[in-house]
Specification:
single chain, 104 residues, alpha+beta, five-stranded antiparallel beta sheet, 3 helices
Amino acid sequence: MLKLDDTIATIFHSLDDKEVYLHRVLEKMHACAENMGKPTVKIGVTKHSQGKNPCYWIEYKKDGLIETYGTFQNTKGFKNNFQIDLWSTKGMTLPEVEALLASL
């Protein structure tokens, strides 16, 4: 099971297909950046995630408030019940995720 403070970087070694996963996350993060603002991504930390291909929550700041862009499993969005303990307490920025992909 993942820890509450895990990020994509801390579970990177356990992802099923690192490159595909990062491309999917970055596609959504870039769309958010173009349409809404600077995105941050958090991962799902439920017992179902197991770090293989965790769902992810993209959020951004607007007028000083954190707004949700979307929650995704692979490329499909899903309705998030926003139960905080299901999501990591730490996020990663777009440049951080891009650097992770570049490290492959």
